[in-house]
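ok so I'm stuck.
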Amino acid sequence: MRFARSQLDYFSEVCRNDEKKRESDVSMKWILALLSVLILGEMVPARADWRDTAEIVLSEPQPSLMRVVVNTKARRVYVYEGNVVTASFAIAVGKKGWETPPGEYQVFSKEVNPVFKNFKTGRVIQPGSDNPLGVRWIGFWSDGKTQLGFHGTNQPELIGQAVSHGCIRMRNKDVVALFEKVSIGTPVIVEP
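replied:
not stuck anymore, here's the structure
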């Protein structure tokens, strides 16, 4: 493809005017100018992008204000960012004698497609439809041998009940959403 002299002059002018900008900006304007000629058959002046007009304010990084609050009576978990609830999910909690322990904890582990090991029998269940942990595990409590956490389930019909051995069961789609929101160290508050 051949370009008219005026087109080449235009390309050169775009680059000369942008010598003070970053090399990637110059390349992008070249590409945009070339595309305008190829597609429209005419010159279209490049517009200023957001970086030319943006105001940048530097500040110290702020600690995350995210926290997870479990309301065992309401059988719901709430994700807070500051004082705003950004997500809420139905849950199942610990049954009588195995109540989910109230207190303040932190997320200490996260697993995709966890392997279940029965704490009574030692039986191991690999990831899949028979695994009672579902598709995600988010650990927040341990006594050194046993762990409690949020997890999916292979029995979603039990959500809303007190049926677990202390863990917090969630629908698989909900635990995936929670998994994406929390990080190691995210505070977990279990209300009585």
